[in-house]
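Exercise 7b. Backbone tokens:
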């Protein structure tokens, strides 16, 4: 008799990570690959973070379990960050430290929704949102956020549909497009969700990584919103797996019980390191300046037909290129594979972010070094014409 399998076995792969695995295999065989596939800063965290971690490793008190919501000094420091950056008062008791922001989303989904609930989210969008919802028996309701909508989710169509979702998840700055919602747009959707009983989750993981004005936090506009953030992107601590989420009062107890059972508590030494992440904003801002330069290098250096009607990338560190105008119209999966193996440039196929139209797009991360952006532009420009002739 065959053993039972579950619906979670059908959850799609996260292609960005699959591409990264392929690059590791090629590099192990001696290839030199330019990494544009994963949203990961190429620079280390601030020196103060490394020193704090080293110090914590020699302290007996950091060897034991942390409480489920994390160490109180770090929660207080995050609250101070909201006062420093946004002029926003946040109660540290509402802040949960999570092993990466991914667990923040998992806690949010489990605490705020029941199986079968409908959650609206943009497409293209970060695939792990959708995949995690499917694994939990939630129904993603996709809102187009393509070029025809100015790469902004079509919220008006959702409002006019007559069937409200149970929840909504938005990201600003957005992955993969780099779209940054205005403060007025965030305020309006916060108010609409609150008035209509739609639980809003705001992904603010790329806050700090904007090339225009600094956005407000959704906490300024709603008492019912869940905000998820992380030390991975702006603070250059991707592999440390330390994130945080801020929950409204009515969710604090269920979230804490879930955290106790899911992971007990985040690693204490990593939390000690994260405490120091807020100590040198100017050094971190220099990375943002480099990302802006990297974006401009790609926009100037890549072939126009490869870029197509690309998204604006006003924030985060992604270029979402429209490849539909290329001769022979290769799909993004085929093009990404050929580009990796023949040109030595790793990118993520757009189908990872948009299952309907993603075959027409590619995501390129410009979080790496400026030298890598120049070399990637050169390699793609030299390789692409010859490749298209083979189609």
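Sequence design result:
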């Amino acid at each position: 008799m065959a053993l039972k399998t579950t619906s979670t076995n059908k959850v799609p792969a996260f292609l960005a990570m699959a591409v990264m695995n392929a690059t590791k295999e090629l590099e192990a065989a001696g290839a030199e690959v330019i990494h544009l596939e994963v949203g990961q800063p190429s620079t280390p965290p601030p020196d103060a973070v490394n020193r704090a971690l080293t110090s914590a490793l020699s302290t007996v008190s950091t060897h034991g379990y942390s409480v489920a919501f994390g160490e109180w000094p770090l929660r207080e420091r995050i609250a101070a960050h909201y006062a420093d950056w946004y002029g926003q008062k946040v109660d540290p008791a509402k802040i949960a430290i999570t092993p990466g922001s991914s667990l923040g989303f998992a806690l949010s989904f489990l605490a705020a929704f029941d199986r079968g609930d409908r959650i609206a989210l943009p497409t293209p969008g970060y695939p792990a949102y959708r995949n995690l919802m499917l694994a939990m028996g939630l129904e993603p309701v996709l809102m187009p956020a393509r070029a025809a909508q100015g790469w902004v989710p079509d919220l008006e169509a959702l409002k006019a549909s007559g069937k409200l979702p149970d929840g909504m998840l938005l990201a600003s700055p957005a992955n993969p497009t780099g779209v940054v919602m205005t403060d007025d747009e965030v305020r309006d959707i916060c108010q609409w969700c609150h008035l209509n009983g739609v639980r809003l989750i705001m992904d603010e993981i790329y806050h700090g990584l904007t090339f225009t004005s600094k956005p407000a936090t959704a906490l300024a506009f709603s008492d019912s919103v869940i905000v998820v953030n992380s030390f991975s992107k702006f603070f250059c601590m991707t592999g440390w797996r330390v994130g945080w989420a801020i929950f409204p009062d009515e969710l604090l107890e269920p979230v804490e019980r879930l955290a106790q059972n899911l992971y007990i508590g985040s690693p204490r030494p990593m939390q000690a390191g994260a405490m120091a992440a807020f100590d040198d904003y100017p050094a971190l801002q220099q990375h943002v300046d480099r990302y802006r330069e990297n974006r401009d290098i790609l926009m100037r250096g890549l072939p126009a037909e490869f870029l197509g009607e690309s998204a604006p990338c006003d924030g985060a560190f992604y270029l979402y290129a429209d490849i539909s105008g290329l001769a022979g119209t290769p799909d993004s999966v085929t093009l990404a594979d050929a580009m990796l193996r023949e040109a030595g440039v790793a990118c993520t196929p757009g189908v990872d972010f948009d299952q309907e139209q993603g075959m027409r797009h590619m995501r390129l991360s410009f979080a790496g070094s400026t030298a890598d952006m120049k070399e990637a532009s050169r390699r793609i420009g030299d390789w692409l014409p010859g490749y298209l002739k083979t189609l």
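Instructor comment: The mean pLDDT is 91. The domain at 8-38+281-389 is CATH 3.90.1150.10 (Aspartate Aminotransferase, domain 1).
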